[in-house]
Amino acid sequence: QVQLVESGGGLVQPGGSLRLSCAASGSIFSITTMGWYRQAPGKQREQVARITSSGSRNYADSVKGRFTISRDNAKNTVYLQMNSLKPEDTAVYYCNRHPTFYGDYWGQGTQVTVSS
Predict the structure, then answer these.
(1) 41, 27 Cβ separation under 8 angstroms
(2) From CA 95, how far away is CA 82, in angstroms rounded?
(3) Contact call for residues 85 and 20 (beta carbons, < 8 A)
(4) pLDDT of amino acid 70
(5) How far, in Å, CA of 12 to CA of 113, rounded?
(6) Where are the beta strands (DSSP E) in the chain?
(7) Closest CA to 63 of 49, 77, 44
(8) Are strands 46-51 and 57-59 parallel, antiparallel or unpaired?
């Protein structure tokens, strides 16, 4: 079974930055499109960014120009650099493949809180 371990979250002031990491197990990581997702209290989980095996990226409009997704296939790791953070970015952040399917395994996520 795939394992996903997210890390790097924390409390940051508005305008600050954080870099999230996601370590994934599995031999097919390098050929899998990976995404970062987030879920704020009382809201549905949403995808904020994704990256294909060849490095093509897509971003949600709400984070475009502020977040950057990257990956290191040698380390089975995907990253999310978050700059110019806003209070509305507060959420638990998860990584997973794209697209996801019902019954997919999800890691524990990492909490990002943007507050002064």
Answers:
(1) no
(2) 14
(3) no
(4) 97
(5) 6
(6) 4-7, 10-12, 18-24, 34-39, 46-51, 57-59, 67-72, 77-82, 91-97, 110-114
(7) 49
(8) antiparallel
User: Which amino acid would we find at residue 14?
Assistant: P
66, amino acid identity: R
Q: Centre a 10 Å sphere on the Cβ of residue 82 and count the other Cβ atoms it contains.
A: 26
pLDDT in tens, 14-48: 999 999 999 998 777 878 999 999 999 999 999 99
CB atoms < 10 A from the CB of 114, how many? 20
Q: Which amino acid is at 116?
A: S
- Cβ atoms of 94 and 107 within 8 Å: the answer is yes
Contact residues for 58 (Cβ-Cβ < 8 A; gap 6+): 49, 50
Tell me, what amino acid is at 42? G
